[in-house]
Structure formats: structure tokens, C-alpha cells
Design the sequence.
């Protein structure tokens, strides 16, 4: 093992960058749909050894000394994000004649940008590098900070944070309720980097002891939480998730709109399969291929389809006329509609997808001919605030449209505490790729973190209902046309304390930083 570590450390040039890229790409196997989490032991062990050999010229100044480490982390991240996000290019092929030119930007440009965060993590760690266990502390601290930064810098995109690789099943998801995804990411790097100590033996015993204790606590807490009594189901609330599986290339085709709407109504009106009649029906994101408020006949048909006491939650585009000749605005919206076909509540999407739903620096980019990928007359506008939406029996849900659900901070909302999460999405853009599986896993984790059941309606899957511990109760896989009826589970606890998870994360960072500093000080003092 020592000989292998030495060879990895001494790599240089193209071979070095290839190993960095490969180590990061290998880590993607820990994510859905593969869920082979043990591969992270290899990925991060290689990264530690690569950073061992990433020392810069002592005479090149502080930044210069960290430059090799930054590029080591960057190539690792480039491999990880290219391997984990290549499927984004599929969205550009829906209208290939207009957007195919941007395929390299989606497949390689975004990963190159996201890799900067991992370059920062590696450079941060190398600044505190020492021998033995201290460098593992430094690397875990750097990655924890990098994933936290990735959640909000440049609007944020915390997709596939490292911590998700350590949570493939509900048993291993429960720790996120205590420390959140960013705390999980830091501890994931800490544990999965420990085999690197085998090569030098320094700090091996305490390092492996820490890893074993953390893994035991992770699994033990998961077992304890899953073994706790279930709070049961909400009285009289049965949810029907409708999955129409509409081909994205046909969704806005005028010739297809009537058939799409009729399919949604038919699935809504289908008799229940042996259970109670659904009281809450959920359609996916922008499932209506027209403006609902401009189509009273459609509202009337919805009212005729819904039975007494039923409520429909539907994703649609909302149009808002400008005042005094101002610009028309469009919103990606969740509506609730009662059994008389009346809109009783609405919530707009707040966290829009750059280039997908709006153009950053629109006045500049529109002059070059760029447009959003979403098929709307203009870019979407963001909603002004997030609030819980009332539904039957004085219950409230937390509206999450599409990728809003990947942001832990978005779980906070005004109004009465939420009883469940509604996540509507349209992953048909990405076809049969890992994208929809990754998206569902992150939604599933929000349920485990918050203790709130998740009701998820996706156009072509993955649609499901989970309980407040992230366990799937029922659902539909990709490309299935149908519905599923599920009694709504009760939430696990009153509400989520974002402060507790945030406090735990910063406590973890402080402890890792302390360990790295102590080790670094001892390393320098002994003349190494």
C-alpha cells in the first residue's frame, strides 16, 4: 500500500490529472441509480495521496504554493461533476435545432465551474496540510465548507453534494435530520478518506477508530429512528399522484394539448383501486399545456371531474399582466383548485433555474439571441416569498417546484407549520438517465431531514409518497402512465429546526478545523 501511495503522490503532468479526473468520476457510482457507496473509500483515498504530492514551490508565495492543490481538487471535481451531471445535456436535445450548440457548455462547462468549489476545498486543506490524521481533518473541513458555499454562491446548485453518497437507503438517511446534508458531506469525506492512513501508518489507529465510531453512530441512529413508532396517517386524507408521462417534445404542441388534458382528467377520475376515494389529487409541474386562468372552460371541466370534497394541486404557468402598460410576467406556479373548479390558492416558484427558466444578465444575453430552454413567451419571474398553502382539514403543505427541493434552506416558509411537502416536477427533460433518480433522492432526503412526509408528482417519474423518515410508501417508476392512491402519513415532529442543523454543521467544521490546526502546529514544530 505504501508503494502504491508513493506512485500516486509522484504522478505529474497528464497522468496526474487523468488520475484526479478518474478518482472523481469513480465517486459518481456512490450516487443514484448505482448507490455503490463503498467506492468513495477509493475516490477519497486517491485524493489524499494526490494532495500529499501537490506541494508547490516554497518561493512562489502563499497562492503559488497552493496552486497544485487547487488544480488537483479541480480535476477531481471536474471528473465528479462531469460523471454526475452529463445528463443535463439531454434537455438541450429536446429542441436540438435551437440548443444543440450549447451541449458542450452543459456537459463540460457547468462541471468545470462547479469544480472550482472542490479546487477551493483542496487548496484550503493543503494550507493546513500535515502528516497523519490532521490532513484528513483538513480535507473534510474543506469539503464541508465547499458544499455549503455551493448551496448559495451564484444562486446556488448543491446537486449531488458528497454526503448523498453515504445515504443510499433510509437506514443511512436519518443522520441528516441531526446535522443536515452539509454536515453529512464533511463527515463523509472524513470517514471515506481514512484508508489513506494505511500507507503511512501515522494516525492509523485513532483514524480508523474515529471512522468506525462514526459509522456505528450513523447506522445506530438510523436504526433507532426507523424503529420508533409510526405516527400513523392523517384521518380522511388520501392522496392520488397522477403521472401522465407526457413526451417533452410534444408537450407544447397545439395538436397534443387536448389529449394531454384529457389524459390528466381521465387519470384523476379513474376509480380507486380497492381503497378509499382520494381527497387530494396532485398533478406534476406545468402539467397544463396552456394558461389556466385564460381558459375558463378548462377550469369548468376540472370542476366537473372532481368529486365532492376533492382538491386538486396542479402545476401550471401563471400570467400576470403588467400595470399601466408594463411588461407581462410569467410564473411557474402551484395552484389548488376546489371541487367547483375554483382556484383557491397559488404559490409561485422562488428559486428559478438559470438559463432554463430565466436568463441571467438578460438585457445583455438576449441581444445575442440567447433564450431560455423552457418554452414560454418570456423568462419566468421569481415569486416574492415562500409560504405554506392550506388544504383540506386545516392542513398545510410546503410547495416545492422542481429543483427547489434540493436546497435545504428552502424548507423554511411563512405561515402555519407545514404538515407535508408537495414536490411537483417535470424530469422528462432528462429522459432515462441518472438525473431523475438523483433528483428523487434529494427530495427523499428533505423528508428525512424535516420529518415531513413527501408527496412527489413527476411528469414521467419518479413519483412517490414517503413518510417523514424518507421511506417510500408507494410510487411509480419512470415512463409509467397511471396514478397511485396513498393515505397521507402524519409528520414526525412539529416542524424543522434549521438552526439546530446549522449549529451542528458549524460545530463539526469547528472541530475539524481545530484538529487540523493542532496537527499542523505539531507538524511544523517538530520540523517536518
Sequence:
Amino acid at each position: 500500500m505504501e508503494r502504491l501511495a508513493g506512485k500516486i503522490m509522484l504522478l505529474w503532468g497528464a497522468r496526474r490529472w487523468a488520475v484526479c479526473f478518474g478518482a472523481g468520476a469513480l465517486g459518481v457510482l456512490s450516487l443514484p441509480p448505482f448507490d455503490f457507496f463503498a467506492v468513495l473509500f477509493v475516490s477519497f483515498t486517491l485524493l489524499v495521496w494526490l494532495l500529499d504530492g501537490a506541494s508547490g514551490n516554497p518561493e512562489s508565495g502563499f497562492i503559488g504554493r497552493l496552486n497544485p492543490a487547487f488544480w488537483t481538487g479541480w480535476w477531481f471535481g471536474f471528473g465528479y461533476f462531469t460523471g454526475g451531471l452529463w445528463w443535463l445535456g439531454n434537455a438541450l436535445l429536446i429542441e436540438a435545432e435551437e440548443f444543440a450548440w450549447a451541449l458542450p457548455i452543459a456537459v463540460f462547462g457547468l462541471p468545470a465551474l462547479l469544480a472550482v468549489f472542490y479546487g477551493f476545498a483542496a487548496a484550503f486543506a493543503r494550507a493546513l496540510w500535515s502528516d497523519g490524521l490532521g490532513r484528513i481533518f483538513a480535507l473534510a473541513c474543506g469539503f464541508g465548507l465547499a458544499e455549503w458555499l455551493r448551496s448559495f454562491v451564484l444562486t446556488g446548485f448543491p446537486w449531488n453534494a458528497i454526503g448523498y453518497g453515504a445515504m443510499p437507503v433510509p437506514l443511512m438517511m436519518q443522520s441528516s435530520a441531526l446535522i443536515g446534508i452539509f454536515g453529512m458531506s464533511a463527515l463523509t469525506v472524513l470517514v471515506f478518506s481514512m484508508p489513506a492512513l494505511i500507507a503511512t501508518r501515522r494516525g492509523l489507529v485513532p483514524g480508523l477508530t474515529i471512522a468506525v465510531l462514526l459509522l456505528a453512530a450513523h447506522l445506530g441512529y438510523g436504526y433507532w429512528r426507523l424503529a420508533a413508532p409510526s405516527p400513523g396517517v392523517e384521518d380522511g386524507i388520501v392522496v392520488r399522484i397522477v403521472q401522465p408521462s407526457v413526451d417533452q417534445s410534444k408537450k407544447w404542441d397545439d395538436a397534443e394539448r387536448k389529449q394531454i388534458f384529457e389524459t390528466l382528467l381521465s387519470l384523476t377520475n379513474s376509480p380507486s383501486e380497492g381503497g378509499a376515494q382520494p381527497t387530494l389529487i396532485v398533478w406534476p409541474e406545468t402539467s397544463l399545456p396552456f394558461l389556466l386562468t385564460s381558459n375558463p372552460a378548462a377550469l369548468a371541466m376540472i370542476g366537473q371531474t372532481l368529486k365532492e370534497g376533492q382538491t386538486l394541486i396542479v402545476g401550471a404557468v401563471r400570467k400576470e399582466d403588467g400595470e399601466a402598460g408594463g411588461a407581462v410576467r410569467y410564473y411557474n406556479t402551484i395552484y389548488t383548485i376546489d371541487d367547483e373548479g375554483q382556484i383557491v390558492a397559488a404559490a409561485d416558484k422562488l428559486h428559478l433555474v438559470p438559463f432554463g427558466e430565466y436568463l441571467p444578465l438578460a438585457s445583455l444575453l438576449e441581444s445575442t439571441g440567447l433564450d431560455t430552454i423552457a418554452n414560454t413567451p418570456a423568462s419566468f419571474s421569481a415569486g416574492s416569498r415562500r409560504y405554506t398553502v392550506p388544504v383540506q382539514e386545516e392542513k398545510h403543505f410546503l410547495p416545492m417546484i422542481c429543483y427547489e427541493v434540493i436546497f435545504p434552506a428552502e424548507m423554511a416558509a411563512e405561515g402555519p407549520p407545514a404538515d407535508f411537502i408537495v414536490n411537483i416536477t417535470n424530469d422528462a427533460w432528462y429522459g432515462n438517465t441518472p438525473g431523475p433518480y438523483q433528483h428523487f433522492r434529494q427530495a427523499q432526503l428533505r423528508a428525512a431531514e424535516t420529518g415531513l412526509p413527501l408527496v412527489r408528482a413527476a411528469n414521467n417519474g419518479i413519483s412517490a409518497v414517503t413518510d417523514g423518515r424518507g421511506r417510500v410508501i408507494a410510487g411509480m417508476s419512470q415512463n409509467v402512465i397511471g396514478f397511485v392512491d396513498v393515505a397521507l402519513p402524519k409528520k414526525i415532529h412539529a416542524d424543522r429546526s434549521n438552526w439546530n442543523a446549522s449549529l451542528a454543521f458549524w460545530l463539526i467544521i469547528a472541530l475539524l478545523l481545530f484538529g487540523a490546526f493542532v496537527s499542523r502546529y505539531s507538524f511544523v514544530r517538530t520540523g517536518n
